Amino acid sequence: MTPALCVAGVDRSFDRRAIIRDVSFALQPGERVALLGHNGAGKTTLFKMILGFLDPDCGEIAVLGHRPGSRAARCATAFLPEAVAFQKNLTGAEVIRFYARLKGEAPRKALSLLDRVGLAEAADRRLGTYSKGMRQRLGLAQALIGRPGLVLLDEPTSGLDPISRQDFYALVEEVAAEGATVLLSSHALTEVEARTDRILILSAGQMVADDTLANLRRAAGLPIRLKVRAGEETVTEVASRLGGERVNGRSVELLCTPAEKIGRLAQIAALGDLVQDLDVHDPSLDDVYRHFSRIATTDTGRAASQHKGA
Ligand SMILES: Nc1ncnc2c1ncn2[C@@H]1O[C@H](COP(=O)(O)OP(=O)(O)OP(=O)(O)O)[C@@H](O)[C@H]1O
Q: InterPro entries in the record, alphabetically (predicted)?
């Protein structure tokens, strides 16, 4: 199957400063992939090359087999920038009709996207009266005109409230379920953790991690945290039988590897009524991100070569 996006050995410099360095990855149809990286890591530069706005200095990019910027690639690609800017005196429906004509799509069909993003009732209102969340949803509707195969979202939920974010990701999930590939950049690690299939981490222009979160957790070898809650009278005994650190006067915190986890849980269960509750914390995406970004700054070459799993 032709990948939705193939990036192979891409370099790009500005003013002789290397911004993207030997970046390679491929995305398959229907994947939801998060592109993470600190400010200035090169995410937007990568998007611009995928969109054909910038040429790589070397390496190849193909969008569903087509050269970025070619008509076929442009038709297959949708882009939603962080802050969508539409004319404030146009209505939602006018914006969609305008972009439908630009993309050679039937305006009537495109207008149904307003319903899909929950803007049907606001279709005839001017954008000056839209909230930021509504403008962002209109941006997504505009991006989805013509059923693109590759959807690029650059920090799409920044500035949105929690409910608008949830609604936004529900739409992204629907789009991916229909076969589109979604690549989204974000600094909001908690929200992409459960909503993407794969994580790419760009650090100082190099791709230092590319895999599922589960595989990256394994590769990082970060400990699992078990928080065992006991009674005031039992916490000392629980701590002495399990080891670990006492926290908050009534809890004991243990760290273990994935291989040790089941054995540790059995030990805790064997304490019976001495234990009141248990929380198991797998390393979060935040922990994984810190791990790979830290490795990258100390030993970029080793990280880049070891953790390109997918
Ligand atoms: N046209 C340009 N000319 C010179 N330098 C540029 C140009 N575009 C980007 N850069 C530099 O390239 C680096 C990467 O920028 P880029 O916008 O790709 O980062 P980013 O990962 O998207 O950051 P952020 O998360 O802050 O949006 C930055 O140091 C930026 O200053």
A: AAA+_ATPase, ABC_transporter-like_ATP-bd, ABC_transporter-like_CS, ABC_Transporter_VariousFunc, P-loop_NTPase
Structure confidence by residue, pLDDT tens digits, 158-203:
878 888 888 888 888 988 998 999 999 998 888 888 889 999 999 9
Contact assessment for residue 185 and residue 284, using Cβ atoms and an 8 Å cutoff: no
Token pair in block for residue 166: 């949830």
Closest C-alpha to ligand 1, atom 13: 40
What ipTM describes this predicted complex? 0.97
Helix (H, G, I), strand (E, B) or coil at 198: strand
- Extended strands (E) in the chain: 5-14, 17-27, 32-36, 58-63, 77-80, 150-154, 181-185, 198-203, 206-211, 224-230, 245-247, 251-256, 275-281
Which of 217, 233, 266 is the endpoint of a domain? 217
Report CA-CA distances (Å) from 31 to 82, 156, 167, 178, 200. 21, 17, 19, 11, 12
Bridge partners, residue 27, by sequence: 5
The CA–CA distances, whole Å, from 129 to 62, 105, 122, 272 equal 39, 27, 9, 60
- Decide if 289 is inside a domain: no
Location of structure tokens 């760290």: 255
Top mutation candidate among 14, 38, 186 for ligand 1, by most atoms within 8 Å of CB: 14
Length of the chain: 310
Sheet strands side by side (includes 275-281): 245-247, 251-256, 224-230, 275-281
Please count the structural domains in the chain: 2
Q: Is 19 left (phi over 0), alpha (psi -120 to 50) or beta?
A: alpha
Distance 145 CA to ligand 1 centre (A): 28
Alpha-carbon distance of 300 to 294, in angstroms, equals 9
Whose C-alpha lies nearest to ligand 1, atom 7? 14
Tell me the pTM.
0.85
What is the CATH classification number for the domain harbouring 63? Answer: 3.40.50.300
Which one-letter DSSP state was computed for residue 222?
P
CATH code of the domain in which 243 resides: 3.30.70.120
